[in-house]
Amino acid sequence: SNNKKINVSITRCDSWENVRKNKEEFTIKNDGITPMETYSTGTFVINAKLVCREETKTVKLIVDTGAIQNLISSKVLNSFTNLNSSGNTFMLSGTFVEPGKSTNSKGYIFDSLETEGFISKNIMFQEIYRDNCGYTESGEVVDGVIGMDVLRNKPFKFSPGDKTLTFFDSSKNFPKENKIQLNKKNIPFRLESKIKFNDNINTNVVFDTGAMESYLPYKKFCKINNLETHVIQKYKNISIHYALIKDFQFINQKIDFIPI
């Protein structure tokens, strides 16, 4: 017989969404503004103090609306002498799975994460099995990620132009010209809305501040007429299409020449 016996080990993982419902205490400091630095890929990073029991470490974290969980490197975790395990095991996203390492990792509860603009208490981080998450443009080590577990707590403005992350006490205080209508079915762990192309094509989009690129499904891509500099890159049996979209409507504004 050509049949082969394969042993497969499956570890039950917890759901971050279920574990972290209304767990943290979030407070806005000062004017709610936290400065950001540019990450090596063009996205953005904040400086923060991570506190566990009586120990405090300074960390740099990617601001990632495309992530649910908060992530921290093994190196930072190992620098604490008395960690507080949450008792949970979570799956790691493909981006953070290391060759030869488990696809699951544990969660750890910290007393607080503090920046210039906010304090998040009773916050959980999930381990990623690496020493760092890359570097800032200036060459400084980045230690992890904050995701929607933190960002969902208050209305916030992510502003690459002036490199700030700003939280507001309520939506009433949020600048009207910057408001985005989101799909409330997926909040608080997914920021989803619609954009409209000039040839009357609408598509749902997910806002991911941890990504530098913009993507569209191929069928939608092919329907858009206002494309420029269309390039096709072939790799084995896969074709990747790149182009500039001349313009589309977003937040009641016309946005010009977006690479996709």
Please explain how this structure is put together:
- The protein has 260 residues and is mainly beta.
- Helix content is 7%, strand content 43%.
- It has a six-stranded mixed beta barrel with strand order 3-4-9-5-8-7.
- The termini are far apart.
- The mean pLDDT is 85.
Secondary-structure blueprint:
Elements: H1 16-19, E1 25-28, E2 33-38, E3 44-52, E4 55-63, E5 71-73, H2 74-78, E6 85-91, E7 104-114, E8 118-128, E9 144-146, H3 148-151, E10 156-159, E11 164-167, E12 192-197, E13 201-206, H4 218-223, E14 227-235, E15 238-250, E16 253-259
Parallel strand pairs: 4-9, 5-8
Antiparallel strand pairs: 1-8, 2-3, 2-11, 3-4, 3-7, 5-9, 6-7, 7-8, 10-11, 12-13, 12-15, 14-15, 15-16
Question: How is this structure best summarized?
Answer:
The chain is mainly beta. The protein has helices at residues 16-19, 74-78, 148-151, 218-223, and strands at residues 25-28, 33-38, 44-52, 55-63, 71-73, 85-91, 104-114, 118-128, 144-146, 156-159, 164-167, 192-197, 201-206, 227-235, 238-250, 253-259. A hairpin with a 2-residue loop joins β14 (227-235) and β15.
